[in-house]
Design goal:
Blueprint lengths: L2 E2 L5 E4 L2 E5 L5 E6 L2 E7 L5 E6 L2 E8 L5 E6 L3 E8 L2 E7 L2 E8 L2 E7 L2 E7 L5 E5 L6 E4 L3
Antiparallel strand pairs: 1-2, 2-3, 3-4, 4-5, 5-6, 6-7, 7-8, 8-9, 9-10, 10-11, 11-12, 12-13, 13-14, 14-15
Length: 143
């Protein structure tokens, strides 16, 4: 059985449970044996994620509200460099992912010399990435 709150937020479903704050931020997600807890700052920005009471991710923001650093147990620390609201570079260890924009829309990224081209649908949502000028698929994604 699925139960939804007054604000149309999912509260529970088969073997799952959720909790939300008054601003609509998810605070808790029980997914089978895993319990996820989410912490937000005063501006409703995600700052910490705990999985089964252990730190799993942490996020830091600048005065303009842009995420400038993230850390998680899988990939470590990533630093973000911006031009306005656009992320120009993501640095993780010795790897840099440089983002290329045209008219405010991200059209490509370069990682270790390999170019990934982004293709959008009629709404401007990125739907797939390719690796070269011939258009061979890396993955099909829904963002």
């Amino acid at each position: 059985m699925v139960r939804v709150s007054l604000y149309t937020q999912l509260v529970n479903a088969a073997e799952m449970g959720f909790d939300w704050d008054d601003n609509g931020n998810m605070l808790y997600w029980l997914n089978g044996n895993d319990a996820w807890n989410y912490t937000y700052d005063l501006f409703d920005r995600l700052t910490r994620v705990d999985l089964n009471s252990s730190l799993s991710a942490r996020y830091t923001y600048d005065a303009g509200g842009r995420r400038v650093r993230s850390w998680d147990t899988a990939s470590g620390t990533t630093d973000y460099v911006y031009s306005g609201l656009n992320v120009l570079d993501e640095a993780n260890g010795g790897t840099h992912e440089k983002h290329i924009y045209e008219g405010g829309l991200q059209v490509a990224s370069v990682v270790n010399g390999a170019v990934e081209y982004y293709h959008v649908d009629h709404l401007g949502s990125i739907r797939l990435k390719t690796t070269d000028q011939l258009g061979y698929f890396i993955t099909t994604c829904l963002w």
